[in-house]
Design brief:
Number of helices: 26
Structural class: mainly alpha
Number of strands: 6
Shape: globular
Largest sheet: 4 strands, mixed
Distance between the termini: 133 Å
Strand order of the largest sheet: 3-4-6-5
Length: 630
Amino acid sequence: MLAQGLPARVPRRAADVHRHAPLSAHPGALERRPGDRAAGAPPAAPARRRQVRHRQPPLPYSRRPVRGALDAPALAAGRQRRGDRAAAGGVGVSRGERLLLVLLGLALFLPGIASRDLWNPDEPRYAEVAREMRADGHWLVPHLNGRIYSEKPPLHFWTIAAVSLVTGEVDRVATRLPAALAATASLLLLFGIARRLFDLRVAWFATLVFATSAKILWQGRIGQIDMLLVALVTAAMYFFVRGLTEGRPGLYRLFFVFTGLATLAKGPVGLLPPLLSILAWGLISGRRDVLRAMRIPTGLLIWAAVVLAWLLPALLDGGADYFRTIVLKQNLTRYADPWHHFKPWYYYLTVIPADFFPWSFFLPGAIWIGWKRIFGEARRGVVLALCWMFVTLLFFSLSPAKRTVYILTMYPAIALLVAAAFGEIETTWPRLRRWLVLPAALLALLATAVPVLALVALRLRPERLAAKLEELEPLGPGTPGMVFGLTLLVAAAAQLAWLAARRGRIRQVVHALAAGLGVVAVVASLLLLPRFDAVKSLAPISARLVAEAAAGEPYAIWPRLDAPILFHTRRYAVELAEEADLRAFAARPGPLWLLIEQDDLARLDPPLPLVEVARETSRPDGYALLTTPR
């Protein structure tokens, strides 16, 4: 009766036949069993069926649900409870992850930090400024050779002087340790950015890509300002991302605090590129609500308060000339109408392949994948990284003066792009395999061809081999073999990465290249770079001057004031601007000393009334030490 009017169901299995047979066909079907409901009793609650949850593979970024254009609208609603932050995208970094990142940074950037001398042009100059800051108490206005040094703000010199309080003096470790610590801090901050914008896998990819790119491996172990600037700009972007993903507008204030500190490190370039990048992101993504939540006018007041806390007392101490130089000349004039470092507009496009090696081979494909293939919540991270990269690149390309370190603050952004592309390739494999296999093959081919072709060329041209060996002779025996061995190590890492790429093992690609570049950097820092002190260090000739010249006897340096000599002698030099000043100094009565480059000494006519005491023989353009006849 129940089946009248319904289509008959055709059973597919024997079990279906048994299940759909008449009730009377089942033995005992009408018998009452324990637990059955008695007649007239209320109906029992239906039994709960066990839900079986099937584990689904992660969706690619391009298929994940979109909550708004580029972000969840609820993120702009204000402060959320701590337990809701993970759902809003505010995923933190665990203590174990922090420990691993710190160990990674220290392992990459600390080895060899004191194995070589301070090299021109910047390391000895910054070390001497910090030494004079500590010795003479010039904490507000930096000094060099006893005179006001108005080329850079003081934050970097403060960090060197602070570390010297632990090391005991301004030395190699105190000069370079701030850069190593800044590089390590950048790893932590970049990991936090990628963890919130993407996922844990992309965060590790981004950290390894950034840490083992050629320029970062170099800047993280030398005493220049730029690594500190990168860390501060990355910190500013980190707090912007936290404010965005956690819906906490108060964190945007820290963006302006850290851009203020970045300005104290290297001027307005610590504010303008990151702020313009965020403005571009907000306009492109349609997130004007985020820009309003940042309260940029109020933020600029915070930035100004940080900067003016140093600048106003410094201007009162340094005077009008200091203001004209540190504010106008070193910022506005240096950007719009510079006096050196002239390069064409496309200069940075020519240096990124080498400076971002080996990951530069994957960068063009990463940009394409990020723009064309990554959507959903990860889209906001891609757009932010693209704006960060292109705005920084455009900002510095518009200036006639260009140096490779100027665009260093965009390296976290391009590391994010490459890492996000690796994550998308791994998730959608093999759909995007060509964007991994072809760059890896090209990298392996080039890395292998360089040592092979160099060896073949030197074999075919033995006279060039002899000339090269003669040039490397001051560096000590075994230097050519060491260089060749390091190039082979890079080639081996590239070959392993290519083999892994063919099988779609993206993590092995990243690990092979990161390990290869990291080992090469550490070995070169410990064993190879110290050999170049023979041709770059001015410590020996400075020590000779200190040994020969009595305390209080004046000395000068020609043709320019050389900071390594000031640093190694711990004595101020007489400054000479023109040849007339040089001859007037040499004609002074009493004992005096002159360090003059050998080429300039040979060109002087008539010669100076001084006698030569010593000269550098390891460098063709080295110094000669002269003094008055005794």
